[in-house]
Amino acid sequence: MIVEILAIGTEVVDGDVVNTNAAWLSQRMIELGHEVRFHSAVPDDEVLMLDALARAADRAQVVLVTGGLGPTVDDFTLEVAAKFFQVPLELHQESLERIRGFFKKFNRAMSSNQERQAMLPKGATVLPNKLGTAPGAVFSLAESQFAFFPGVPKEMQEMFGNFSRLLPKPATELSRRRKVLRCFGLPEGQMDAALRDLFKGRMEIHGTQVGFRVRFPTIDLRLRSAAASASEAENNLSTAEALIREKLGDCIFGEGEASLEQVVGALLRQKQLRLAVAESCTGGLLASLITDVSGASEYFVLGVVAYANESKLQLLEVKPESIEKFGAVSSEVALEMARGIRKMSGADYGVAITGIAGPTGGSAEKPIGTVHIAVAYPTGEWEKNYLFPFGRDRFKQVAAATALDRLRRILLANPS
Amino acid sequence: MIVEILAIGTEVVDGDVVNTNAAWLSQRMIELGHEVRFHSAVPDDEVLMLDALARAADRAQVVLVTGGLGPTVDDFTLEVAAKFFQVPLELHQESLERIRGFFKKFNRAMSSNQERQAMLPKGATVLPNKLGTAPGAVFSLAESQFAFFPGVPKEMQEMFGNFSRLLPKPATELSRRRKVLRCFGLPEGQMDAALRDLFKGRMEIHGTQVGFRVRFPTIDLRLRSAAASASEAENNLSTAEALIREKLGDCIFGEGEASLEQVVGALLRQKQLRLAVAESCTGGLLASLITDVSGASEYFVLGVVAYANESKLQLLEVKPESIEKFGAVSSEVALEMARGIRKMSGADYGVAITGIAGPTGGSAEKPIGTVHIAVAYPTGEWEKNYLFPFGRDRFKQVAAATALDRLRRILLANPS
Lengths: 416, 416
Fold this sequence. Notes:
Two copies of one chain form a homodimer.
Chain A: E1 2-8, H1 10-13, H2 20-31, E2 35-42, H3 46-59, E3 62-66, H4 77-85, E4 89-91, H5 93-105, H6 112-115, E5 119-121, E6 125-127, E7 136-141, E8 144-149, H7 153-166, E9 175-183, H8 188-195, E10 204-205, E11 208-215, E12 218-227, H9 230-248, E13 252-255, H10 260-271, E14 275-279, H11 285-290, E15 300-306, H12 309-316, H13 320-326, H14 331-345, E16 349-355, E17 370-377, E18 380-387, H15 392-413
Parallel strand pairs in A: 1-2, 1-3, 3-8, 14-15, 14-16
Antiparallel strand pairs in A: 4-5, 6-7, 7-8, 9-12, 9-13, 10-11, 11-12, 16-17, 17-18
Helix pairs in contact in A: 2-7, 3-4, 10-15
């Protein structure tokens, strides 16, 4: 079916918010076999909203509307939608109870404007919101189906699952398969070059469309095949995947939505190993990524963010003479930190990161972006230095991801 | 003038690329005093492009088109535009030379399709592209001005400067002021309720438009005024700001792009105080936020991510009997952690967070989302518990932000 994605919100057309919802929804709708033809956005303005809804009804069979479901006075998407559909707003009791429950659950007073969120166009199907207060709604008008989601990406994404089950199957009879290969360790240009020989036409390998998507510091390879039969689609995709894996090897760390920290966590759990980390320049990001994985407490013991030199010394038993002789950002100190955190925590694996995030602190010999990563483990040690001159934020991200990726490779190569 | 921003490209409507160009252009056009009313995107499809151009000509005075100026066969924006303007395409000699020079510079062979990029609608003003091969073009049609930019953000942004000089000053002589107030500690609904009495019309206070924008876990209040004179605009905005500040008090932690961690960092630096943190359930996120601020090493000494009970005990000198009697997630343990990290680091301020991130580990008495936050400082101690049942990711974010916000309030209230 033909799809339009309509964002409602002054913050979107004013450029205060980048409309990532449109891209996310497009990807999902395409996966479901639909055709996205239009993205549009209008401000919180009744006349412009009515016009946009009318236009969408004219040209699309599925209209996905995001934004304007909040409790504040500038959130009135459903009010305008009801006007457009020529139906009244009706209190949806279940949603009201849900909203009340939400406030009760964390002991907050509920303001009366919050009740407005339970007012839905009469005849609409409700899309419950598990993560927030604003319910969504689905409404059919003539040939078109309208779905209303909150603008908050997480809530919208969570609710999309329920919506997609309401959607009729697309008319096209093609079987579709898709897979995402998650990669780390090669920049996009080098990945493209590595795969160049495989590409037929634009970005096609064995009847499978291949697309790059940078999700810094990782890169996704998105594979998509469509064929007359399911087995042919499956076969095309797995052939393409095998060819790609041959070229990229262990740069592919996972599939689908798997993160480096999830892959590392699964390996640690499987091997029943425990991990501790000592960081300076990444400032806690490595520990925070590791603990983003639920169940991390099974294998993650301790993190130390040693930001001052004294802390490195005292806590991690880094030798003062190592810092004096080689500097805090050095192979020697990285290794001593890894050994120190492993020893003090009693963990099987100790990982250490020390470096210069910038914007100050660099020198000719050790420029901003220099980072040393070390791993101490039962059967050995590993250490390497890198230069990631990408600015403070990205430096932290790529340094932490590099440590995780190395941990992954060592875990894969070692029996315990 | 009324502005529409139109993206052309299948990769945009397919969601392979997030349309950041629209937000960037919106911000620039608003700074120049224009009003952006529409964002839209269509695929590389002649019929849909012609329709989108016609629609834009109808409703906007300035139409900014991005994408489809590349050398490949699916780049034909200017071809379609010429058709729409009913003029032929013409070779622009200077642009051709520029493209040739570009290839020469990099010692690359120029493919013949690259020459196509020098074909512009007759009568168009050229926008030279310093960073790439595709020139842009500006074309006037009746009341509307159309500008065509490449989809590559850097090239588009560089070329926008030249384009903006071609733009007539906005017809309206209004002076504009804008300000963002960053808030934490009240949910959106309660902020709205607190301000409700001030609102005239939908969201206006003293000639100033007010908008909410959730940037979880913080909320922005966006203020905008427009008036005949600069002083009136200024005056309206500052009056509205004063009224809002009276209602929201110290929920407003900063202005513009300031983050909680920046505000806290500035206070610590100004007071020459040093900070250390001990976290369990936030798993390093608090330390990572603190160290996202450049120069954090001036005041941030040490972070400990105590994920296992033994680590809390040993390292932070939490009493075993406190854990036994009250549990690891308790006021007593939070306070002991804050004291412990303060003592072991020698910092002036010790902050501790202990809680249950979920999805497992909750009980009837201490449900998932329970968190205790404690601060130990030279002249006192503070401790409080909260319930944030928002799922693991958001739990970590709101717990870390709550700790930062409390630190901010204590720093503001205490002389040292």
